[in-house]
User: Fold this.
Amino acid sequence: MTTNTSFAEQLLIWFDQHGRNHLPWQKNRTGYRVWVSEIMLQQTQVVTVIPYFERFMERFPAAKDLAEADVDEVLSLWTGLGYYRRARNLHDSAIAIAEQHQGNMPKNIDALIALKGIGRSTAGAILSQAYNEPGIILDGNVKRLLTRLHAIEGWPGQSKIDKQLWQIATELTPNQRNADYTQAIMDIGATICKPKQPLCVACPMQARCQALALDRVASIPTPKPKKVLPHKTISVLLLKNQQGQILLEQRPSKGIWGGLWSLPEFVNLKALQTQLALDGLPTNTRPITPIKHVFSHYKLTIEPHLLVLSNMLQKVSENNRSQWYDSQQLHTIGLATPIKKLLEKTQ
Ligand code: SF4
Assistant:
């Protein structure tokens, strides 16, 4: 194979032999199914996404079903996938599709980008994968592949490099076999041109690859400049009543774990105990092993404190954001992942 063969032709020859063509979202391809899969696949591995995608499709086979659902149920099916804003955006956009597009996924880039949570690359993936249009994609896998092929130095998150990559991606995108091409470029990025130890010996693009020629594969793409993540510690109250129910609070829709259920949160143990005293409850809480969780912008240590109400007369008032839950009900609501793990451990 010479470099005179176009990039797309060469990639498609590789795809016909090695590409993935049994992924669940590649069956019964619709704009809706491709959209949901693309959103789930953001920051998440294919193998993790598959069971979530299948459960989601079983419950919400079309945009209309998703639009009619309660956001709490949508979040419960998302629990464990992380980045919950994706689920809320999916739900909001399904409502917009029902109201503005008669429940049908739009088929043009401007209408797609107007929907919450759909960026240029996701819109390109929907157009190419569902409608075989020349949609252009530039997800993390494609960015890595293109920076290596062209030996582009500098963190790809910078706008000038992002612009350069879009330009290259646009020039490379063919006018035919678009669904296959998009899948192929994602597949080669995910399975051959991997972040660590790329399989250059098995790569059909060796002859084109400038990073390989310059022996700079290990240093391209340039990593994001490191910043030290701030660290925050909070206390949470694990309050059980005599029936073994747990008091949960729904978090505000904006911010971390937006709209998910969690344990009542306090800045520290003193604030937690002050609130208990104000509610006329005992303050002899028992500490449980802290949980550490890392977000993209900070590290969090959660210090849980257990209190079991032993007296029938001890009452905690529920408000519209807090509610007692039986352990059997926990799988029906969207729970913050560390809290879900803590409750599973302490049941
Ligand atoms: S030769 Fe190696 S670095 Fe270059 S595109 Fe292929 S896998 Fe990536």
